[in-house]
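Sanity check

After download, print the first record. It should look like this:
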Amino acid sequence: MAFTEAAPTVAKAQTEYARMMPESIQEVVKDKIYHAYGFQIASTLIVIGDNGLIIVDPGSDDDSARATREAFIKAVPTAANLPVTAVIYTHRHPDHAFGSAGWGVTQQDIDAGKVKIIASENFVDNLVNDVGVVGNILTQRTAYAGGYPAQGAKGLVHAAIGPTFSAGPISFFMPTDLVSEGKPLKLNISGENLEVFHAYGDADTDEIDVYLPDYRHVHGSETIQGETFPNLYTLRGTSYRDVAAWMDGVDILLGYAKNSDTYSGSHMRAWKGNDFIVDRIRNYRDAIQYVHDQAIYWTNLGYTRDELAEKVILPEPYASDPWLQEYYGTVAHSVRNIYGGYIGWWEGDPTQLARPAPKATSQQYVRVMGGRDAVLKEGRSAIDQKNYGWAAELLTHLVNADPTDMDARKLKAEALRNWGYLQTNIYWRMYGISGAQELDGTIDRSQPWNFADPAIVKVLPTTALLKTMSVRLNAERAGDAVMKVQFIVSDTNEQGGFEVRNKIAAYSEDKLDKPDVTIRGPKTAILQTIATGKLADGLQVSGNKSTASKFLGLFDLITPNDVNLVLPPGTPLKP
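Expected structure tokens:
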């Protein structure tokens, strides 16, 4: 659970916020709708139907989901023998959709039609991107935000939108019923009427919300992200979160809220009272518009990405709103995202195009500042004056110039760690602390953490995962290689293939014309082959087997939890 003890290394607001996350089972609508809050990062909504339970967001992992279920049954013992008849994934993020087995769901029951799995029509495509395309860097950046440093006064306090993230065994089942954009899905499950609809939010285009008209209850998922200013951009890394679309999503949700007396969300305590609900959602929406519009206003006057962080500051009535404090999202990192989303990374100054490479730039800075010892002295002085950001900026040049310089690394670590301790925003705190641990070599990356968890990979469409192999091609090893390789997945009737040419691997779902080699076998063997780079048992290889091995050798293997975020790529943690 959240760390709630006061400490000089934890901002007071962080501690106060952590104390708002006790485990609780809220009875939102008497005998019918319950909200489990504080058991894991994401809250779980439980609807009691005539002959079963409807679960909205089972959670991050099976152990956490099981603990949530046990607490619910203890609070509502009459529901103990009711099976789950539907699971709704509000979106694809790791804290939401991967604990169904903890609620007793099995693939056998899904195949028998006893359990529906409901998600957005965009859910699988977006999940494949997270798992197969950028999964490695997302794994590391997410772990730095809360997976590595131990919980406590000098580490993780809470996750801002929940107490803490668990890394237990997970389960994942493919959706059976999809929600189309612009067309709400109306269902009756276990005697309960539901309307599931798209409303853009934290998860981009696969965010869905739920309305229960018979009880005038709406579940806003992460369209309203929680008791915090929204993460209009996540420092974990993401494609552009369209802030204008998010504002439109809140408007859609607001339409349902106007006909609701109770409200719940993925990362918050439930609300009651129509006037209160409408007021809260409208203020949240207006704060998003203010940040969006002012970011564009100043951009049009020539202000650059980083300058926007100084120009756009929440005024009243937003600044003192307890639901808009910057525990999770911040205006400063949101406006930079808006700038990039509309006009890209370049700020218009050709110096950005002419600038030498990072290492060469840092070497020149160190030279003109008087050399290594002079920079170390200035960094030490800045830390002593509690000017931690400037110290980190100075010392970054020393570290870039010579990543093996442990004096520079430890001093920069001291700057980032102390800066992190001061932060109210949990992301800023944790990246400061995790970055410091990377620099001084104390970070523990041994904990399991992987966006491409085998439990997810084995369920996703094989061809969708095959396609993502192309981004792992080592162009230098590919050289002048030219070959065609066909994959046939015998037990799922899928096929796909690659043509290697000109240092790329061009993917096609069509049958290749005259492939050099065909690799045929069951899904498990195909997945093992692309994960390990070696032909698995149970495969049939038609054509030149050495060509198949050569093809697989062109792709780098992913080693989760082995990427630097602060040190230059490939730098050992302990030289």
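If your output differs, re-run the checksum step. Summary of this record's structure: The longest strand covers residues 494-501.
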